[in-house]
């Protein structure tokens, strides 16, 4: 019985870790997109100078 509980707890832990990885990857893409926009804006200002 204890082994079953431990296996179930481990499975929930793995599912939680995998879902967090997807969230972090999505956040990384958002940050990258924001950085690209800042870079584009900086290049536009540099061209105007």
TrEMBL record:
GO terms for cellular component: membrane. This is Entericidin EcnA/B family protein. GO terms for biological process: response to toxic substance. It comes from the Bacteria. Belongs to the EcnA/EcnB lipoprotein family. InterPro entries: Entericidin. Keywords: Cell membrane, Lipoprotein, Membrane, Palmitate, Signal. PROSITE patterns: PROKAR_LIPOPROTEIN. Residues 30-49 are annotated as: Disordered. Residues 1-19 form the signal peptide.
